[in-house]
Amino acid sequence: MARVVFFGSPDFAVPTLDALIDSPYKPVLVVTQPDRPAGRGRHKVPTPIKSRAQESGIEVATLASFREDSFLTRLREDRPDYFVVVAFGLIFPDHALKIAKKANINVHASLLPAYRGASPVNMAIVNGEPFTGVTTMEMVRSLDSGPIYMQSMEPVDPMENAGELSVRLAGRGASLALDTLCGIDSGGLVPTEQPTEGVSTAPRLKKEDGLIPFSGHSLSVHNHIRGMNPWPGSYTYYRGDYIKVHRAEPCDLLKRAVAPGSILKSGSEGVLVACGSGAISFKRLQARGKKPQEAADFIRGHPLETGEVLGGGK
């Protein structure tokens, strides 16, 4: 029986953990990030992976830094055959990568070498990719640049957001992780080096990255809104008031004779806003401190006047 230590933190990692639990590769230990403050009360809450592992009766350890020598000693004592890593949140140093006897497998939500980094799903949507996918690779010290075991391509629906695509990719990644483990154990699966061409990056997103760039054409604005939902959130400002945009639709690519961000129409069918080329129709919005609403309901409580220009800051 292979001994697996699983590393992961967010929801994206849960399907892979579930798949391992129901297989011959059930982890002997699950490692996750420490509990973090969340919500208005800022109470500490466990990661989704910690909660799932505890429900399954698997031993859980938290790790904030690989500088904790006592933790590395513990990992060596567990004598793992495999590390399986999904969105854990820390870069593994060389001495940690030498612990597992057979392989250090990472599940990454892109078709590497495209979109190395922390936000591959977001950036695939922002850039309007028609396809993305999942890769399993052997981990190396350099970020997401290790040799590839397996890949699976997935189409991107032109209306789905990053959260919706992440759910599909998480399920695909779970299957790929199991296939990779079985392939290595059978002796037939050997990783191949990543291509040197087609390398792109997807850096960790910040809250300010969600500010809607109306200067682009309507399709790129639409892709930005999709790519920033649900986090860090897609937003703009109206007369200095924060407005989050959950869902929108591009209308056309014709050049408008008004400033990008200008409100062209505000009614039951949505809020039509000019872009650098074309227009975007906001369908679902949210005021600060309020719940998301369909456009018609939002406008009744928060009128948006035609001719005003969205954007800027507080």
Give the structure's gist in a few sentences.
With 314 residues, this protein is of the alpha/beta class. Helix content is 25%, strand content 27%.
What does this structure look like?
By secondary structure, this protein is an alpha/beta fold. It folds into 2 domains: about 5-200, 3-Layer(aba) Sandwich (Rossmann fold); about 205-300, Formyl transferase, C-terminal domain (Methionyl-tRNA Fmet Formyltransferase, Chain A, domain 2), CATH 3.10.25. Helix content is about 25%, strand content about 25%. The protein has helices at about 15-20, 50-55, 70-75, 95, 120-125, 160-185, 220-225, 295-300; strands spanning about 5-10, 30, 35-40, 45, 60, 80-85, 105-110, 115, 130-140, 150-155, 200, 235-240, 240-250, 265, 270-275, 280-285, 295. It has a 7-stranded mixed β-sheet with strand order 5-2-1-6-7-9-10. Helix 5 (about 120-125) runs antiparallel to helix 7. The protein is elongated.
Domain count:
2
Secondary-structure element string: EHEEEHEHEHEEHEEHEHEEEEEEH
Beta-strand residue fraction: 25-35%
Q: Tell me, what's the shape?
A: elongated
Helix share, percent: 10-25%
Largest sheet: 7 strands, mixed
How many whole angstroms does the radius of gyration measure? 22 Å
CATH superfamily of the largest domain: Formyl transferase, N-terminal domain
